[in-house]
Amino acid sequence: MVEHRPWLTFLTHAVLISGMLLLVFPIYVTFVASSHSLDEITSNFSLLPGSHLVENYTRALNVGSKDVGATVGTMMLNSLIMALGITIGKIAISLIAAYAIVYFKFRFRMFFFWMIFITLMLPVEVRILPTYKVAADLNILDSYSGLIFPLIASATATFLFRQFFMTVPDELCEAARIDGSGPIRFFFDILLPMSRTSIAALFVILFIYGWNQYLWPLLITTDESYYTLLIGIKRMLDVGEGQAEWQIIMASTILAMIPPVLVVIFMQKQFVKGMTETEK
Amino acid sequence: MVNDLEPADRDIAMVFQNYALYPHMSVYKNMAYGLKIRRMPKDEIEKRVRNAAKILEITEFLDRKPRQLSGGQRQRVAMGRCIVREPKVFLFDEPLSNLDAKLRVQMRLEIRRLQEDLKVTSIFVTHDQVEAMTLGDRLIVMDNGYAAQVGSPLEIYERPATRFVAGFIGSPGMNFLPVPLSADGQWAELPGENRLPLQNGGIPSHGGQEVILGIRPEHCDLAGEQDGMMHLDVDHVEILGADTLVYGHFGEDKTRLTVRLPAMHHFEKNTILPLIVSSKNVHIFDKKSEKRIEK
After folding, report:
1. pLDDT score at A279
2. Torsion angle (degrees, nearest 10) of CA A158, A162, A164, A165
3. What's B239's domain CATH number?
4. pTM, whole model, 2 decimals?
5. Residue B39 touches chain A, beta carbons under 8 Å
């Protein structure tokens, strides 16, 4: 800010801080709840952290809630495998697809591009029945392949990489050809290192997307050992007449937030670069 | 035919207009990349890159990324990338057009020196006629995809084959006057009722026809009041120091003419200047085909 007006500084800070409190409060409540025993939560809930923190988290990680049959540790691992699988798979496939569309001249090139582009407009939910049928016929229900592969094709990422590749000057490709590098070498030696920041940005977005998948894992997993964490939390709530174990649910929720937050923190710099900077 | 070969197998190296350096590689790696792909031994690559860097005086930048370099330095790196390959032909695609005027003159000299040292055939594309005249041993003037003329720079300056070539080479551009020839083809009838005798017996084949007379600005001279063939009415004067450009018109139909006179002259607007032109310095082109008419 160029201007120096004390009341303006005060006002902007007040808005910022109140906004932050508004966002942080539910998370704080979740955290506090995860440190109390069930009795304390249901009878008189205090907004100060309780004394059962370690106990609750250990139980969540190693034993899990009753009636769910999988520990939070297992479910976190499943979520992680699915999120990483989706992220890496999507990036790999989109890179290759965008490379083909931008750098190779073949028949119906634009047709294929538009086909990919149109699928942007179809959310997973629309094609969920046929996809389920295919997954069932392929016998990949209740498996990591089933969790990952149907979600791996991404029009958004393909489109993003296509746009990036189009900004790479043609001369670079010609220079590489004169230097004697073939299509594969050009891809790995030049295009891939140049798209590093875009890849990082996409990694963050796609990891969160993969981690937050709910409907698809819910449909295709019936075996508890393949439950993802989000499904697990939902199952913990489905206790019918009984009493939900809120302290475990809240602990699981906090645990579910950690990996996406870590990814954002560690890739923050690359992420911002990828969103704003055009290489060169 | 080279058309059937992959670019990598043509044994050429190219300097691009925007240099096309690999942005994520250091200068060293940029220069070594082509050699690395050709599986040259590491110490040989090192030797060649160091050597090229020494010639181009970029040794201290070898570890930098292209974006940390200035335009002239990037230009050198682009040339270095070509030199290390030791190809049969260098291709330069308007390599100097992204540089500022002073640097361009300097790089022009360096390219010439380099080319003479390395003795490698080089093809240099340029829009700048000074670059063309100074760098070229042989010029090819391209007009709409056709080679309008091929020859040494002086040959092209002295005997341009078409009106296009004549207008392209030389600055300011050649003056073109549509004039009729006398019936026997011995004289050109200049505007303002003066006659210009043609050399070597004239052009009898085009006697009585209208042709295009080309006169370079530097080939007009000031004359005495009586000797003047063209009486130029001055419109505008540009004093460049070493010489003076005079823009004006003459004759009844106000034919425009640009003249370059040595040394400084301060002419007022509407001064009448008597000018002569030597008939050995005029070029005659056919009006329709715009080709040079030889005697």
Report:
1. 47
2. 130
3. 2.40.50.140
4. 0.77
5. no
